[in-house]
Amino acid sequence: MQRRSLVPHLLLAGLFAFFAAFLLYPIWLTIASGFESSDGGFTLYHVFDVFRDEASRRGLFNALGIAVATTILSFVIGLPLAILAARFDFRGKGVMSALILVPLILPPFVGAIGLHHLLGRTGAINTLLINMGFIEQGVDFIGQGGFWAIVFVEALHLYPILYLNATAALANLDPALEEAAENLGASPWRRFKDVVLPLIRPGLFAGATIVFIWSFTELGTPLMFNYQDVTPVQIFNGIKEMAASKQPYALTAVLLLCAVGFYVLGKLVFGGKAYAMYA
């Protein structure tokens, strides 16, 4: 019995050692360079310099805007689909559930390439309009940068994460609670707002957290749209072009701290506590 009780602790210690060696230590090596002075000591100059630089501040605000907009759009897409999957039975439901998860297979930048081929100046829509005689030359529907195109592509890729969490939360909901509210005369919208939504809020927060942090730190999609004014692309360009500069590493540290800070703030404001249910 004593030997068997040691197995979980040994496995836990092994997992901690693995993640410390291959995850935490590389992250520390990256962000530590942002706090290193020219003589090898500790300094906050490079971190403060990130907030003094207008381009870096604009990149952080744009990354935050993309993350917020992507999370909201993922809610708009994923939550109704989760309610449909959890509350209704209809022919083809299994096929629909499988198709909903298809975007998880492909990375977001693949969707960015497809959107370029569809809406770009030489894309399929422009080719069709030119062939039909409506326009003489292609129109760049995406434009330079493409903030909303990035939001659209990332939301289409990430909404299944929120959908899965919402579906699981709805499946674990005790139907007696809604029935009690219905017996008291609550309308469907009132039952959803006052009963269902508070009970599934921890599950929604879990999915929204993944979507938010993923889109906040996403590099591939902004690169495909040549959107330079966003923090992940600025870090990528800085490390690639100025290997001796400390600013990209300080920017990485700021991005990581912002992601952790936004998670803690969201946990305090939106996370709430989970409610135990008998069913």
List descriptors.
globular; 279 residues; mainly alpha; 12 helices; 0% strand
Structure description:
The chain is mainly alpha-helical and 279 residues long. It is built from twelve helices and no strands. It has helices at residues 2-32, 45-52, 54-87, 93-100, 108-119, 124-131, 147-171, 175-183, 188-216, 220-224, 231-241, 247-271. α8 crosses α9, α9 (188-216) packs antiparallel against α12 (247-271) and α11 packs antiparallel against α12. The chain is globular, with a radius of gyration of 24 Å. The protein starts with a helix and ends in an 8-residue tail after the last helix. The model has no long low-confidence stretch (mean pLDDT 83).
Query: How many strands, which pairing sense, and closed or not: the largest β-sheet?
Result: none
The arrangement of helices and strands along the chain is HHHHHHHHHHHH
The helix fraction, in percent, is: over 70%
Cα-to-Cα separation, first versus last residue? 35 Å
Oligomer: single chain
List the helices and strands and how they pair.
Layout: H1 2-32, H2 45-52, H3 54-87, H4 93-100, H5 108-119, H6 124-131, H7 147-171, H8 175-183, H9 188-216, H10 220-224, H11 231-241, H12 247-271
Helix pairs in contact: 2-12, 3-7, 3-9, 5-7, 7-9, 8-9, 9-12, 11-12
